[in-house]
Write a structure and sequence with these properties.
Chain B: Its EC number is 2.4.1.-. The complex is a heterodimer of chains A (513) and B (498). Chain A is an all-alpha fold. Chain A is built from 23 helices and no strands. In chain B, helix 1 crosses helix 2, helix 7 packs parallel to helix 9 and helix 16 runs antiparallel to helix 18. The chains are: A mainly alpha (513), B mainly alpha (498).
Chain lengths: 513, 498
C-alpha cells in the first residue's frame, strides 16, 4: 500500500517520470507481442509503482507508442524490466513528446486565427496574435512538465485548445467531439466539462435569443441535442466499451478516481486546502503553546512529514471527498449561471471555462499542482484581448509557474528552471505591458510587491535553507512556504477573475461574436 | 518517515539552456579538472614540469600561465564546495552530477563576465544600424554553434580568450589603443593560439603609428604600446621569469614543435594534401616547418601590408579573418578547434556581409563534425545549427543580399570586366556554390551518422568532411583577400555617389 501511494508522489525526477511512461508502454508490450492488453491485474504489474491511472484512450495511445518503441529499443518493452532506462529509450520518449506536440502547434495556430485584438502597432512582435502564440508555445509550465518532468500534456492541451477554437469558429459539433475524445484521454478535463455542457446547451441547442439576451425557449432544437448526445455516447462507447464487456469497469473507475489518496499529496498544490492546512497547523501550534490542546490527542503523523494517506486535521474540521465536491460545485455555480443567463458567445464560454478550471483547482480533492496549467492556457487567450484579463493572467501564470518549481528538484535542473522561468515571465510581462500601454498600469503596488517577493522566496528555499539547521528538523518547510505563498496569489487571481466575470455587462451591450 | 529528497541517478540529457547535452568523456573535461587539481596542490614551480606528482603525459598543462591562474581560481571554489573534486591523485576521472554542474557553471560565469559583455558592447558600437538590427546581430553572434558546442559540450574555455581578443578589437577600433593591446596580451597569455590574431593587431597599430607620423605622436604611441605589451607579459609570466629553465619549459609545453605537421584530421591544406601524397611521412620535420612557415606568411602578407599602409577599422576586421584563416590552413600543428579563431572575426563582420558570413559559420561548424560526433553531440549540434541559421536568415534576410554590391565584390568585378566583358555572372555563381556546399554538407552529415565506413578506409567520412571543409575554406580565403585588396578608395567614392 505504502509503495503504491509513494509511487504517485515519486513521479518527480527525470528518471522517475521516464520510468512512469516507459512502464505503461511495457504493459502494452504485451500487445506488441500479440497478447491482448488488459488493465493491470497481472501479479508482476501490481508490484510496480506506476500503474495505469488514465482513461482508456490514453492506454491505447501508449499501445501505439509501444509498437513504435520496439524499433528503438526492444528491451524497454519487457515487463520485467522495471526502472529500465537507456539512452535510446530516452531518445524515443522525448521524440514522442516532441512529435505529439505538432498537434499543439496546430491548435495554437487555429486559436490565433480567432483572435482579432487591437492593432497596436505594425510591428510583428506587438501584434496580439504573435504574443499569444509565444505565450502558448513557450509556456514555461508546459515546457517543464512535458519535456523535463515528462508527460504528454502538449497534445492534450492541443486537443482542448482546438476544441475551443472550433467553438469560436462556430463548428460546435467538432468542438464537442474533440472535447469528448479529450475527456477519455485524461479525465482531469472533467474540471471544465460543466462549462462545455452549459455552453453547448445554451448557445447551440437554443438557436436564437430574445433581443435583450435572455433565453428563447421555443428555439430549442431537438436535433442538435440528440446529435450532441450521440457524439458523446459514441466516443464513450468506443472508449469504455471493451472494459464494460470484460466487466472491469469498477476497477477502471477505482484507478481513475483514487479517493484513498488524501486531500493533498506530499507537496500541497497551492489551492484553498493548502491555506486550510496551513491554518490548521498554525492553530495547532498556537493551541499547543497556549495549552488549549492536549498533546496526546494529536495524531502522530502530521501532514508535513510527507506521508500520503488519509488522516484528520487537528483543530479545524476534517475534509472529506464529498465536502470538496460540494465546495467545488458551489464555487462553479455562479459562473455557470452567468454563462446561462448572460451568454456572451465564445468569449463568455472561455471565461467560464477558466473559472471552472480554477475553481476545481481551488477546491478539488487530491489536486496536483500541474492542474494549474488547465487554467493558465485558456486564460492566455483572454489575456491578449483585455487589459484587466491580462493583469489577472500575469499574476496567475507567474505564481502558477513558480509553484511548479518543486517538480524539478535536482541540482542540475536548478539553473534551467530559473532561467526559463525568468525568460517567460519577463517576456510575458513586457509584451503585455507594451500591448496595453495606453490603458492604466497592469499591476498595483500590492501585486507588484507580491510578484517581486517570489525572488527572495526562491533564494531562501533553494539556496539558504539547505545550509541551515532547520533542514533536518523541518525538511518540508520550503515546500510549505512555496505552497502557501502561491496559494495566496492564485486565490487572489481567482477572486479577481470572478468579480470581473460577475460585473461584466450583459450581451445586449457588448456584441462579441 | 521523511519524504526523501534523493534523486535517482539521472539518465537524461541535461540541456543547459542552449548548451550541450551528453556527459563529456575523459577528454578535455578531465583535462580542465586535472589542471585545477595540479594548480591547487602543487607549487607554481612544478606546474609545467614532469614529476611524480605531475605526470605531463596525463593532460599536462599546455596553455600559458593565465589559464593556470584561472584553473587555480576555479580550484579554490571547488575546494569550498567539495574537496574530493581536486584531491591530488585520487580525483582522477572524477565525474558526478554536481561536479558537472560546477564545471559548466564556471564556463557560464566566464562567458557572462568576459565574452558576452564584449559582444553586446561591440554590437552597440556598430554604426549606421538600427537598434533592432544591433540586437539581432548580438543574438546571432551569441548563437554561433561552434563556440557553444566546444565550450559547453567538448569542454574548454575558449570564450575567455576570444572574449579578451574581442575586447582588444573593440579597444583598438575605438582608438583606446593601450587598453586594446592590454586586452589582447591577456588573450595571448590565456591561449597561445591567439597568436593567429597577433599579426593584424601589430600591423594595424603600426599603421596607426605611421599615420600619426613617426617623428611625433606616432613614435610616442609606439613606445607606449611596446611598454604596455612588455609590462603585461611580465606580469603574467612573473613566477616563471625567475629561472631560465622555467621559461624554457613553459615555452616547450606551449609550442610542441616535435609533434608534426598535423595531428588527427583537421580541415587544413596539409591534411587534405596528405590524402593524395603522404607529405607528413615523406618530408623531414624541419622541411615541413619551413614549408608551412613560408606558405602561411606568403598568403597573409598582402593583407597585412595593405593594413599597415591604410589602417582602417573595417580593413582591420577583414585582415583578422584572412590572417587567421591563412594560419589555420597552412600552419603547423593546427587543431580543428582553431577554426573558432577564424569564426570570431567573421562574426564581427556579420552585419556587413551577412550572406557570406553565415555561410562561413555554417561550414566552420560542419568542419567540427568528427569532433562533435566523438563527444556524442550530434543532436545539440543539429539543433543549434538550425537555430543559428534561422536566426540569421530572419534577422538579416541573407538570401536577398546576394548582389555584387552586397557581397563587396563590385570593384573586383569591374576590374575583371575590363579584361573579360562577359564576367557578369559572379553573384549567381556564388549562389550556386552556396547551394552545392550546403547540399554536400547535409549529405555528408547524413552519411557519417547513418552509414558505416568501409573496412579498408575506417576514417573515410572524417577525411571527406575535412576535405570538403578545406575546399570551402580555400574559397573563403580567396574571397576575403579579394575584398581586402579591392576595398580601395574607389569603393568609398562609389558609396558617396550612390
Amino acid at each position: 500500500m505504502w509503495i503504491k501511494l509513494v509511487g504517485s508522489v515519486r513521479c518527480r525526477s527525470n528518471g522517475g517520470a521516464h520510468n512512469c511512461r516507459g512502464y505503461w508502454q511495457l504493459v502494452f508490450g504485451f500487445g506488441a507481442r500479440g497478447d491482448s492488453p488488459q488493465m493491470p491485474s497481472h501479479p508482476h504489474l501490481a508490484t510496480s509503482e506506476w500503474t495505469l491511472d488514465y482513461p482508456p484512450f490514453f492506454a491505447w495511445f501508449e499501445y501505439i507508442l509501444s509498437h513504435v518503441a520496439k524499433y528503438f529499443d526492444q528491451e524497454m518493452l519487457n515487463v520485467r524490466n522495471l526502472n529500465y532506462s537507456s539512452s535510446r529509450t530516452l531518445l524515443f520518449q522525448r521524440f514522442s513528446v516532441i512529435f505529439m506536440d505538432v498537434l499543439f502547434v496546430y491548435a495554437v495556430h487555429e486559436c490565433c486565427k480567432c483572435i482579432d485584438g487591437k492593432k497596436v502597432g505594425k510591428e510583428l512582435t506587438e501584434k496580439p496574435k504573435f504574443i499569444l502564440s509565444v505565450l502558448l508555445l513557450w509556456n514555461f509550465g508546459l515546457l517543464i512538465v512535458d519535456h523535463i518532468h515528462f508527460q504528454y500534456n502538449g497534445f492534450l492541451f492541443g486537443l482542448m485548445l482546438l476544441s475551443i477554437a472550433r467553438l469560436f469558429q462556430k463548428r460546435h459539433m467538432e468542438g464537442a467531439f474533440l472535447f469528448a475524445v479529450l475527456l477519455h484521454f485524461k479525465h482531469i478535463y472533467l474540471y471544465v466539462a460543466p462549462a462545455y455542457g452549459v455552453y453547448l446547451l445554451r448557445s447551440y441547442c437554443f438557436t436564437a435569443n430574445k433581443p435583450d439576451g435572455s433565453i428563447r425557449w421555443n428555439s430549442f432544437s431537438f436535433v442538435r441535442v440528440i446529435s450532441l448526445g450521440l457524439v458523446v455516447f459514441l466516443v464513450s462507447a468506443l472508449s469504455l466499451g471493451p472494459f464494460l464487456a470484460l466487466n472491469q469497469l469498477p476497477q477502471v473507475f477505482s484507478r481513475l478516481f483514487p479517493f484513498k489518496r488524501g486531500l493533498c499529496h506530499a507537496y500541497w498544490a497551492p489551492n484553498f486546502w493548502a491555506l486550510y492546512n496551513a491554518l490548521d497547523k498554525v492553530l495547532s501550534v498556537i493551541g499547543l503553546k497556549l495549552k488549549f490542546l492536549d498533546p496526546n490527542n494529536i495524531p502522530k503523523a502530521s501532514m508535513t512529514s510527507g506521508l500520503v494517506q488519509q488522516f484528520q486535521h487537528t483543530v479545524l474540521p476534517s475534509v472529506t471527498p464529498l465536502a470538496t465536491l460540494i465546495c467545488t460545485l458551489i464555487a462553479i455555480l455562479p459562473s455557470i449561471f452567468c454563462l446561462w443567463f448572460k451568454p456572451q458567445g465564445p468569449r463568455g464560454f472561455l471565461r467560464c471555462l477558466t473559472l471552472c478550471a480554477l475553481s476545481s483547482f481551488m477546491f478539488g480533492w487530491h489536486v496536483h499542482e500541474k492542474a494549474i496549467l488547465l487554467a493558465v492556457l485558456p486564460m492566455s487567450l483572454l489575456s491578449v484581448q483585455k487589459a484587466g484579463d491580462a493583469s489577472i493572467f500575469l499574476i496567475l501564470t507567474t505564481t502558477g509557474h513558480y509553484s511548479l518549481f518543486p517538480l524539478l528538484f535536482t541540482a542540475p535542473e536548478l539553473p534551467i528552471k530559473i532561467l526559463l522561468m525568468l525568460l517567460f515571465t519577463i517576456y510575458s510581462i513586457s509584451s503585455l505591458k507594451t500591448l496595453f500601454r495606453k490603458e492604466k498600469p497592469l499591476f498595483n503596488w500590492m501585486e507588484t510587491f507580491y510578484l517581486l517577493g517570489l525572488g527572495p522566496l526562491e533564494v531562501c528555499c533553494e539556496f539558504v535553507f539547505p545550509f541551515t539547521s532547520w533542514k533536518v528538523k523541518y525538511p518540508f518547510l520550503p515546500l510549505l512556504l512555496t505552497s502557501v505563498y502561491c496559494a495566496v496569489g492564485i486565490t487572489y487571481a481567482w477572486f479577481k477573475l470572478y468579480v470581473s466575470v460577475l460585473i461584466d455587462p450583459p450581451v445586449g451591450k457588448t456584441k462579441k461574436q | 518517515m521523511n519524504r526523501n529528497f534523493e534523486f535517482r541517478k539521472p539518465n537524461s540529457n541535461l540541456k543547459m539552456f542552449l548548451g550541450a547535452g551528453k556527459p563529456p568523456m575523459f577528454g578535455d573535461y578531465e583535462a580542465q579538472r586535472h589542471w585545477q587539481e595540479i594548480t591547487f596542490n602543487l607549487p607554481v614551480k612544478q606546474w609545467y614540469f614532469n614529476s611524480s606528482d605531475n605526470n605531463l603525459q596525463y593532460w599536462g598543462l599546455d596553455y600559458p600561465p593565465l589559464t593556470a591562474y584561472h584553473s587555480l581560481l576555479c580550484a579554490y571554489v571547488a575546494k569550498f564546495i567539495n574537496p574530493d573534486w581536486i584531491a591530488l591523485h585520487t580525483s582522477r576521472g572524477y565525474e558526478s552530477q554536481a561536479h558537472k554542474l560546477f564545471m559548466r557553471t564556471t564556463v557560464l560565469i566566464a562567458d557572462l563576465l568576459i565574452y558576452i559583455p564584449a559582444v553586446v558592447l561591440y554590437c552597440c558600437c556598430l554604426k549606421d544600424i538600427s537598434t533592432k538590427k544591433k540586437i539581432a546581430n548580438a543574438l546571432c553572434i551569441l548563437l554561433y554553434p561552434g563556440l557553444i558546442l566546444i565550450d559547453y559540450g567538448h569542454f574548454q574555455y575558449n570564450s575567455v580568450s576570444l572574449g579578451f581578443a574581442l575586447w582588444g578589437v573593440l579597444g583598438v577600433s575605438c582608438d583606446w589603443d593601450l587598453l586594446g593591446s592590454l586586452a589582447f596580451c591577456l588573450a595571448i597569455n590565456y591561449k597561445q593560439m591567439e597568436l593567429y590574431h597577433s599579426l593584424p593587431f601589430f600591423c594595424f597599430l603600426l599603421g596607426k603609428c605611421f599615420k600619426k607620423g613617426l617623428k611625433g605622436k606616432g613614435f610616442v604611441l609606439l613606445v607606449k604600446l611596446a611598454c604596455t605589451v612588455v609590462a603585461s607579459f611580465v606580469l603574467c609570466w612573473l613566477p616563471f621569469f625567475t629561472e631560465r629553465e622555467q621559461t624554457l619549459q613553459v615555452l616547450r609545453r606551449l609550442f610542441p614543435v616535435d609533434r608534426g605537421l598535423f595531428e588527427d584530421k583537421v580541415a587544413n591544406i596539409w591534411c587534405s594534401f596528405n590524402v593524395f601524397l603522404k607529405i607528413r611521412d615523406i618530408l623531414p620535420r624541419h622541411i615541413q616547418l619551413i614549408m608551412s612557415f613560408c606558405f602561411t606568411f606568403l598568403s597573409l602578407l598582402p593583407a597585412c601590408i595593405k593594413l599597415i599602409l591604410q589602417p582602417s577599422s573595417k580593413g582591420f576586421k577583414f585582415t583578422l579573418v584572412s590572417c587567421a584563416l591563412s594560419f589555420f590552413l597552412f600552419s603547423f600543428q593546427v587543431h580543428e578547434k582553431s577554426i573558432l579563431l577564424v569564426s570570431l572575426p567573421v562574426c564581427l563582420v556579420l552585419s556587413e556581409i551577412p550572406f557570406m558570413s553565415t555561410w562561413f559559420l555554417l561550414v566552420s561548424t560542419f568542419s567540427l563534425l568528427p569532433l562533435l560526433l566523438k563527444d556524442e553531440l550530434l543532436m545539440p549540434s543539429v539543433v543549434t545549427t538550425m537555430a543559428f541559421f534561422i536566426a540569421c536568415v530572419t534577422s538579416f534576410s541573407i538570401f536577398e543580399k546576394t548582389s555584387e554590391e552586397e557581397l563587396r565584390l563590385k570593384s573586383f568585378s569591374i576590374s575583371v570586366r575590363k579584361y573579360l566583358p562577359c564576367f557578369t555572372f559572379l553573384s549567381r555563381m556564388i549562389q550556386y556554390l552556396f547551394l552545392i556546399s550546403v547540399i554536400t554538407m547535409v549529405l555528408l552529415t547524413l552519411m557519417t551518422v547513418t552509414l558505416d565506413p568501409p573496412q579498408k578506409l575506417p576514417d573515410l567520412f572524417s577525411v571527406l568532411v575535412c576535405f570538403v571543409s578545406c575546399l570551402n575554406f580555400l574559397f573563403f580565403l580567396v574571397y576575403f583577400n579579394i575584398i581586402i585588396m579591392w576595398d580601395s578608395k574607389s569603393g568609398r567614392n562609389q558609396k558617396k555617389i550612390t
